[in-house]
Amino acid sequence: MENVVLIVHLILALSLIGVVLLQRSEGGGLGMGGGGGGGGVVNTRGASTALGKITWMLAIAFICTSLTLTIFAAQNSASGSVLDRIGAGGGASADQPLLPSGDALLPPTTGESGGALDLPRAE
Fold it and tell me: By CB neighbour count within 10 A (0-12 exposed, 13-18 middle, 19+ buried), where does 6 fall?
Protein backbone atom coordinates (compact mmCIF):
# COMPACT_ATOMS: atom_id res chain seq x y z
CA MET A 1 0.00 0.00 0.00
CA GLU A 2 2.85 2.36 0.86
CA ASN A 3 4.47 1.79 -2.53
CA VAL A 4 1.23 2.64 -4.33
CA VAL A 5 0.90 5.91 -2.41
CA LEU A 6 4.56 6.69 -3.11
CA ILE A 7 4.10 6.14 -6.86
CA VAL A 8 0.96 8.30 -6.87
CA HIS A 9 2.90 10.95 -4.91
CA LEU A 10 5.70 11.01 -7.49
CA ILE A 11 3.23 11.22 -10.39
CA LEU A 12 1.45 14.10 -8.64
CA ALA A 13 4.75 15.90 -8.09
CA LEU A 14 5.74 15.64 -11.74
CA SER A 15 2.25 16.63 -12.90
CA LEU A 16 2.22 19.62 -10.57
CA ILE A 17 5.58 20.79 -11.93
CA GLY A 18 4.33 20.41 -15.50
CA VAL A 19 1.06 22.27 -14.92
CA VAL A 20 2.80 25.14 -13.15
CA LEU A 21 5.27 25.47 -16.02
CA LEU A 22 2.43 25.50 -18.56
CA GLN A 23 0.69 28.48 -16.98
CA ARG A 24 1.35 31.83 -18.55
CA SER A 25 3.28 34.40 -16.62
CA GLU A 26 1.52 37.49 -15.37
CA GLY A 27 4.68 39.47 -16.13
CA GLY A 28 6.98 41.02 -13.57
CA GLY A 29 7.69 38.53 -10.81
CA LEU A 30 5.41 39.05 -7.82
CA GLY A 31 3.88 42.16 -9.30
CA MET A 32 7.13 44.11 -9.57
CA GLY A 33 7.77 46.46 -12.45
CA GLY A 34 4.83 48.12 -14.04
CA GLY A 35 2.47 50.72 -12.72
CA GLY A 36 1.14 48.63 -9.89
CA GLY A 37 -2.35 48.97 -11.22
CA GLY A 38 -4.51 45.87 -11.21
CA GLY A 39 -2.07 43.24 -12.46
CA GLY A 40 -0.23 42.29 -9.28
CA VAL A 41 -0.16 39.16 -7.21
CA VAL A 42 -3.58 39.66 -5.68
CA ASN A 43 -6.29 40.19 -8.24
CA THR A 44 -10.00 39.56 -8.41
CA ARG A 45 -9.78 36.92 -11.11
CA GLY A 46 -8.73 34.11 -8.71
CA ALA A 47 -8.36 30.58 -10.07
CA SER A 48 -10.82 30.93 -12.91
CA THR A 49 -8.70 29.29 -15.57
CA ALA A 50 -8.69 25.55 -16.10
CA LEU A 51 -4.95 25.28 -15.44
CA GLY A 52 -5.39 27.17 -12.19
CA LYS A 53 -8.07 24.77 -11.01
CA ILE A 54 -5.99 21.75 -12.03
CA THR A 55 -3.04 23.22 -10.13
CA TRP A 56 -5.14 23.55 -6.98
CA MET A 57 -6.47 20.00 -7.27
CA LEU A 58 -2.99 18.56 -7.83
CA ALA A 59 -1.60 20.58 -4.91
CA ILE A 60 -4.32 19.33 -2.55
CA ALA A 61 -3.78 15.74 -3.67
CA PHE A 62 -0.01 16.17 -3.25
CA ILE A 63 -0.45 17.40 0.33
CA CYS A 64 -2.81 14.49 1.10
CA THR A 65 -0.32 11.92 -0.19
CA SER A 66 2.45 13.66 1.76
CA LEU A 67 0.46 13.36 4.97
CA THR A 68 -0.38 9.72 4.19
CA LEU A 69 3.29 8.87 3.64
CA THR A 70 4.14 10.63 6.91
CA ILE A 71 1.58 8.52 8.77
CA PHE A 72 2.96 5.33 7.19
CA ALA A 73 6.50 6.30 8.19
CA ALA A 74 5.42 7.02 11.78
CA GLN A 75 3.69 3.63 12.06
CA ASN A 76 6.73 1.78 10.72
CA SER A 77 9.27 3.48 12.97
CA ALA A 78 10.77 1.50 15.83
CA SER A 79 10.30 4.23 18.42
CA GLY A 80 8.37 7.43 18.63
CA SER A 81 11.20 9.93 18.40
CA VAL A 82 14.79 10.34 17.30
CA LEU A 83 15.60 11.55 20.80
CA ASP A 84 14.11 8.36 22.25
CA ARG A 85 16.41 6.31 20.01
CA ILE A 86 19.46 8.31 21.11
CA GLY A 87 18.63 7.81 24.78
CA ALA A 88 17.83 4.10 24.35
CA GLY A 89 20.83 3.43 22.10
CA GLY A 90 23.27 3.63 24.98
CA GLY A 91 25.39 6.36 23.46
CA ALA A 92 26.41 7.46 26.95
CA SER A 93 26.56 5.64 30.25
CA ALA A 94 24.57 6.67 33.31
CA ASP A 95 27.49 8.65 34.76
CA GLN A 96 28.31 10.33 31.43
CA PRO A 97 25.59 12.71 30.16
CA LEU A 98 24.74 13.02 26.46
CA LEU A 99 25.32 16.76 26.43
CA PRO A 100 28.08 18.73 28.19
CA SER A 101 27.16 20.91 31.13
CA GLY A 102 26.99 24.67 30.80
CA ASP A 103 30.38 25.19 32.46
CA ALA A 104 32.11 22.97 29.89
CA LEU A 105 30.93 25.28 27.12
CA LEU A 106 32.53 28.42 28.57
CA PRO A 107 36.01 29.46 27.42
CA PRO A 108 38.80 28.98 29.95
CA THR A 109 39.76 31.90 32.15
CA THR A 110 43.23 33.43 31.90
CA GLY A 111 44.70 31.58 34.87
CA GLU A 112 43.58 28.02 34.06
CA SER A 113 45.51 27.14 30.94
CA GLY A 114 48.38 28.59 29.04
CA GLY A 115 46.50 28.18 25.80
CA ALA A 116 45.98 30.45 22.84
CA LEU A 117 43.55 32.68 24.72
CA ASP A 118 46.30 34.06 26.95
CA LEU A 119 47.79 37.14 25.31
CA PRO A 120 51.22 38.46 26.29
CA ARG A 121 51.15 41.69 28.23
CA ALA A 122 52.69 44.75 26.67
CA GLU A 123 54.95 46.61 29.10
Answer: middle
pLDDT in tens, the chain (123 residues): 899 999 999 999 999 999 999 887 766 555 555 555 555 555 555 546 888 899 999 999 999 999 999 999 888 876 666 666 666 555 555 566 566 666 667 777 765 555 555 566 666
Q: Give DSSP secondary structure letters for 95-115.
A: TS-SS--GGGGSPPPTTT--S
Nearest Cα to Cα of residue 20 among 52, 65, 63? 52
Q: Evaluate whether residue 14 is within a structural domain.
A: yes
The verdict on residue 63 lying in a domain is: yes
* Structural domain boundaries enclosing 14: 1-20+50-75
Domains in the chain, number:
1
Within a domain: 122: no
